[in-house]
């Protein structure tokens, strides 16, 4: 068999192995449903529990990277803390070594009797037959998923046999044997392990190939140990890639996976090779077999975790030092820290803390709206991503505040406190919706940028005027809520009414432009989406203001208030409305244009 055939057969074996492992892992996850995820983030109260869970889950899904990527997602979403994730990641490092023991089954062979019954060919055939029966002929979904697991296992075994068969002729090659001896240099072996695993994106696949190579009888302990050390570091690549786009805690979690294996590689390299320099271990030249490689891999990983467990607290501090929080993120966390469960027994204090946290949420929603308006004028992917990231934070505020306030309703409170909590629960969803509309506006900006759509000058001016009025109404609403100012809250509804009238007028104007051919339909859809979102922003601001006034007026009737300000129009309301109408006059540029033309005509006549 020539070199090209060996490489192609080896790669086909790797492909079958990876596909089989993926199919088996996916089947196992479907059988378990969401239980694996629930177990991961609910039962991690102590490092030991985390390690055991990480080991068990990784042994089930056959991928430490998949387990860690899942944990990165939990930490990124705020469901799990970085400290909880450390134990699970350590366990994942141990659990991934189980695959090596499973792969040892593929090397069981025999020519007769029980040995023949336990051969790889027999096991794979039986499992594949049962698996395809479950997959094709059984209607129950659970059995179909079990069929996927069994078929995945069979494909994995065939892949291992293919890899083993591909490299078996190499035992006769003196060049190959000499090449392997270079890996006995620890530095070279570690580099090969890192590079190989980084390319394959799977520690299990790298160990499987090493086990296949060991069947040539050319792999010594001295060569396999540094490669095994490097494999752990290389396996961090897919985890680090998964952290792209996550928040700081997500990046810290991914970094923990790398640091665990990096520390193990450095620590045991120094200890083992220093001792060997004096003692000269007799087993360095021992020929490795699949079982001894699986054993070495498991021992190395367990020894590393045993050394690291006492330093979990230091590891957490170290990753926080490597990936530092910026002042804005520290401020966000400070808001969440205000919602201390011990304060629930003291409603007055809990309400104050909730109000402060909601102030932070309201300001962030306002800031995101401001970002979306800026995106309409100057689009950039970085700014767009920032809006989506902050929307996740606003959603997190709603989740934490909503849970906290609902817990607070179970405490004994007076009527004023009950009204305050009710107000917060109502306005909470309105502030969250402001964030949603900021995202919607950013998507309009994305569509405009991707399709290279631009509005006419008159449409741009109109959007500018409307955006200014939206900025003012959000400023009024947020400032009124943060300072408990009823005077400011009462100015919101007149502006909301004007914004509604502006939106209707702008829709009519844009329809006219479409009829006259000054704008295209693509522009029309985007313009209409924009107006709808801006009008809804004003409506949510009105909801917040009305809730504030209702809470602060013991004899206040919401319906009567809305009816009064919208229909009866008292003097203060009318005065406020007129001031806004003059300030946000969309007819201004047309008037200016007419007066400019008149001046030009008069100038020509004068000449």
UniProtKB/TrEMBL annotation:
Residues 380-407 form a coiled coil. Gene3D superfamilies: Phosphate transport system protein phou homolog 2, domain 2. Residues 588-607 are annotated as: Disordered. The chain crosses the membrane at residues 51-75, 87-108, 114-134, 146-167, 187-210, 222-244, 256-279, 299-323. This is Na/Pi cotransporter family protein. The keyword Metal-binding does not apply. Residues 590-607 have a biased composition (Basic and acidic residues). The keyword GTP-binding does not apply. It is found in: Cell membrane. Keywords: Cell membrane, Coiled coil, Membrane, Transmembrane, Transmembrane helix. Residues 360-444, 470-545 form the PhoU domain.
């Amino acid at each position: 068999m020539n070199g090209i055939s060996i490489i192609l057969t080896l790669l086909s074996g790797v492909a079958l192995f990876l596909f089989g492992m993926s199919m088996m892992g996916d089947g196992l996850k479907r059988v378990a449903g969401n239980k694996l995820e629930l177990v991961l983030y609910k039962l991690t109260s102590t490092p030991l529990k985390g390690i055991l869970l990480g080991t068990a889950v990784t042994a089930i899904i056959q991928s430490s990277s998949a387990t860690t990527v899942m944990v990165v997602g939990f930490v990124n979403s705020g469901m799990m803390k970085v400290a909880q994730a450390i134990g699970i990641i350590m366990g994942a490092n141990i659990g991934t070594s189980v695959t090596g023991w499973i792969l040892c089954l593929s090397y069981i062979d025999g020519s007769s009797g029980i040995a023949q019954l336990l051969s790889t060919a027999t096991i794979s055939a039986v499992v594949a037959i049962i698996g395809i029966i479950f997959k094709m002929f059984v209607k129950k979904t659970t059995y179909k998923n079990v069929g996927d697991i069994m078929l995945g296992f069979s494909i994995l075994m065939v892949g291992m046999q293919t890899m083993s068969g591909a490299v078996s002729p190499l035992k006769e090659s003196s060049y190959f044997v000499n090449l392997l001896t270079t890996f006995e240099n620890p530095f070279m072996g570690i580099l090969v392990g890192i590079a190989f695993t980084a390319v394959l994106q799977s520690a299990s696949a790298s160990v499987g190939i090493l086990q296949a190579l060991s069947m040539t009888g050319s792999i010594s302990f001295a060569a396999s140990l540094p490669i095994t050390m490097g494999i752990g570091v290389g396996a961090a690549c897919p985890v680090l890639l998964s952290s792209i786009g996550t928040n700081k805690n997500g990046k810290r979690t991914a970094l923990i996976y790398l640091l665990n294996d990096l520390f193990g590689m450095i620590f045991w390299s120094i200890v083992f090779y220093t001792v060997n320099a004096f003692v000269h271990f007799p087993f360095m030249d021992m020929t490795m077999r699949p079982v001894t490689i699986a054993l070495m891999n498991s021992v190395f990983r367990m020894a590393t975790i045993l050394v690291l467990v006492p330093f979990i607290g230091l590891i957490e501090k170290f990753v926080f030092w490597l990936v530092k929080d910026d002042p804005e993120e520290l401020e966000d966390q400070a808001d969440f820290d205000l919602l201390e469960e011990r304060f629930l027994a003291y409603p007055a204090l809990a309400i104050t803390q909730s109000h402060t946290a909601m102030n932070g949420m309201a300001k962030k929603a306002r800031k995101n709206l401001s970002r979306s308006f800026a995106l309409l004028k100057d689009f950039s992917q970085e700014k767009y991503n920032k809006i989506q990231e902050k929307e996740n934070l606003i959603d997190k505020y709603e989740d934490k505040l909503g849970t906290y306030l609902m817990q607070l309703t179970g405490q004994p409170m007076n009527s004023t406190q009950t009204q305050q909590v009710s107000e917060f629960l109502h306005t909470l969803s309105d502030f969250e919706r402001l964030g949603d509309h900021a995202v919607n506006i950013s998507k309009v900006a994305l569509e405009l940028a991707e399709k290279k759509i631009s509005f006419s000058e008159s449409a741009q001016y109109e959007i500018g005027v409307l955006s200014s009025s939206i900025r003012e109404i959000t400023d009024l609403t947020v400032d009124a809520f943060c300072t408990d100012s009823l005077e400011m809250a009462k100015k919101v509804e007149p502006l909301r009414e004007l914004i509604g009238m502006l939106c209707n007028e702008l829709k009519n104007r844009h329809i006219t432009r479409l009829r006259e051919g000054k704008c295209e339909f693509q522009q029309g859809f985007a313009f209409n989406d924009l107006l709808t979102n801006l009008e809804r922003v004003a409506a949510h601001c009105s909801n917040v203001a009305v809730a504030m006034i209702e809470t602060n007026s013991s004899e206040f009737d919401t319906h009567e208030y809305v009816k009064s300000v919208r229909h009866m129009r008292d003097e203060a309301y009318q005065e406020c409305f007129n001031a806004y109408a003059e300030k946000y006059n969309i007819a201004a540029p047309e008037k200016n244009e007419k007066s400019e033309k008149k001046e030009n005509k008069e100038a020509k006549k004068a000449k």
